[in-house]
Automatic annotation (TrEMBL):
The keyword Transmembrane helix applies. It is a multi-pass membrane protein. This is Cystinosin. Gene3D superfamilies: 1.20.1280.290. InterPro entries: LC_transporter (IPR005282), PQ-loop_rpt (IPR006603). The keyword Transcription does not apply. Coiled coil: none annotated. The chain crosses the membrane at residues 12-30, 51-73, 93-110, 131-149, 161-183, 195-219, 239-258. GO terms for molecular function: L-cystine transmembrane transporter activity; symporter activity. It catalyses: L-cystine(out) + H(+)(out) = L-cystine(in) + H(+)(in). It is found in: Lysosome membrane. Keywords: Lysosome, Membrane, Repeat, Symport, Transmembrane, Transmembrane helix, Transport. Pfam families: PQ-loop.
Length: 277
């Protein structure tokens, strides 16, 4: 590819990255604003913001180490010699840091002592989600123990258990969280036969960001002529696809299955019962 083409592809990749980051970042505002306007968190499954905080803390760790840790970048290059440069970008880190703040804000709205919002006594974290929360942390600790238990020549070998595997484990926590966090909300919408209290604006922004995220990843890998850039960044690929899948479900629920937001939803107990437990 000529120099002009190379400049164009890199500029397009950066543009896609910043647009999807802005879409995803903007998607965090409609829900807390909706809660504020209603002075209530009813209609929002508490599982969603609970695991969201964990997920984005993990994503922030993942992106920051791939960008700024010489050890992690060195181990990545050893495992991907054809394209030694990670496909993580600064906009990924900017998005992750912003997401930690906003997801924490949304979670805090379930504390009446802080905001004074109406929170149902049935809005509590379900046992399966609680188990996934603590199980994910335990899994990362286990990988850390595997890495630190190595001695001798294997200690610096990036092709065995290495610190990059700890970072990958942390990134998989984010992927698991993304898969899990939407399920309770889809279930709550189904039980109530309504999406009242669940902002569709955040879903539309999230859907747009997911599409552009995957486009950027494909563009970067195609430019490097090495599709291991995708397999080397599985969390970004997984995040985009999983988000798109669930966004389509919520769009279907809001516009097709339960389109009338003016209907009176069921009793408080029915509205807020968690998925399980």
């Amino acid at each position: 590819m000529g120099s002009q083409g190379e400049i164009f592809v890199k500029a397009l990749s950066r543009l896609l990255g910043w647009i999807y980051m802005l879409c995803w970042s903007a998607s965090f505002y409609p829900q807390p604003i909706l809660n504020w306007r209603r002075r209530s968190t009813q209609g929002l499954a508490i599982d969603f913001p609970t695991v969201n905080v964990l997920g984005f803390v993990c994503y922030a760790i993942y992106t920051s180490t791939f960008l700024y840790s010489p050890l992690i970048r060195e181990q990545y290059a050893a495992r991907h010699p054809i394209s030694p440069e990670p496909t993580v970008r600064f906009n990924d880190l900017a998005f992750a840091a912003h997401a930690v703040v906003l997801s924490s804000l949304t979670y805090s709205q379930f504390w009446p002592q802080i905001w004074g919002f109406k929170v149902s006594k049935f809005q509590r974290v379900s046992k399966p989600v609680s188990g996934i929360f603590w199980g994910s942390i335990a899994a990362v600790v286990l990988v850390m123990l595997l890495v630190t238990s190595q001695t001798g020549e294997d200690w610096h070998d990036p092709l065995t258990w290495a610190w990059i595997d700890v970072i990958y484990a942390i990134s998989y926590v984010k992927l698991v969280v993304t898969i899990v966090k939407y399920i309770p909300q889809a279930w709550v919408n189904y039980k109530r036969k309504s999406t009242v209290g669940w902002s569709i604006a955040q879903i539309l922004l999230d859907f747009t960001g997911g599409i552009l995220s995957i486009l950027q990843l494909v563009l970067d890998s195609a430019y490097q002529d090495d599709w291991s850039g995708i397999t080397g960044n599985p969390v970004k690929l997984g995040l985009g696809n999983v988000s798109i899948f669930f966004d389509l479900i919520f769009i279907l629920q809001h516009y097709v299955l339960y389109p009338n937001d003016d209907v009176v939803v069921k009793a408080d107990a029915d509205v807020s019962t968690p998925l399980l437990g």
